[in-house]
Amino acid sequence: MPTAAFKELELSSLAPTERTTVFHSSGTTEHRPSRHFHHPESLAVYEASLLPWFARHVLPSAGDLQSPPRLALHVSGDHKSPARFLCLAPPPAQAPHSSLVHMFAAVSHAFGAPGSRFLATVGADNSWSLDFAATLTALRQAEQSSEPLVLLGTAFMFVHLLDELAQRGLRIVLPAGSRVMETGGYKGRSRELPKAELHALLAKVLGVPHEFIVCEYGMSELSSQAYDRVVGSASIHSPQSSIFAFPPWCRALVVSPETGREVAEGETGLLRLFDLANVRSVMAIQTEDLAVRRGEGFELLGRAAQTEVRGCSLLAE
Fold this sequence. Notes:
26% of the residues lie in helices and 22% in strands. It has a single domain (5-242, 308-316), classed as Rossmann fold (3-Layer(aba) Sandwich). β9 (213-217) and β10 form a beta hairpin. Residues 62-79 and 313-317 have low confidence and may be disordered. The protein is α/β, with parallel strands linked by helices. α2 (40-58) packs across α4 and α6 (155-167) crosses α7 (195-206).
């Protein structure tokens, strides 16, 4: 099913009375958002998919980095990380239809140390605004302590933070072990930095090493996410490219738009995803994202031409 169909059709096996949560795609105010309907059981599957793959890539222990990739199928919320989570996004009560905010809330609850918090608000026009005073206070507190931070946000919100710090002539040195997860999402609608430049600025201004900056790829129509590295591990790829991988229950294909068949290694096509965690919705989704086939993963190039602009960072604009 093409992602565009989620705007026009109610693609769900849940009856209207069973739908307790609906995630909307973010985008321009002129377009109808995609809708992904959930109820408690499907949300439980969503989080069962989310938590172990997030932990594997963003919260590995030193031992994990030395051993082959493993996947814990059960992640207990009792095992908190020593790090506080700072989310450059509004809290769930202000953004109940954002799958990204729900994701941030789920990982913060499961893994975040006490003091984890959201640092943005939603305006009257539904735009996201970073509470810079609160963010700076939290960053300064971390700088003066030995406790690492996990900083989560869209690419644009990180640009907003970096611009504000630059305007004030400030630099923060976060404690060793701090890490950043950025979700991309410029989509040509606001000031855009190449990924390598954005990550270089994050490393310089926040003191987070390049290998502790992880990129995440997801969308409101899915229940699984892809990551481009295990934090702390050296990338074998160039800084200009990211090779993403989904968990084993989500298969990514790069297909030719002309034939619909999988392209050869190193060739470009449209990203097609088969997500077994997408219960009560559509398993096979045809995206409008261009990608290059890279082994078991894919290199994300961006939106295909003449497709609708969308992305979580549009909310920040």
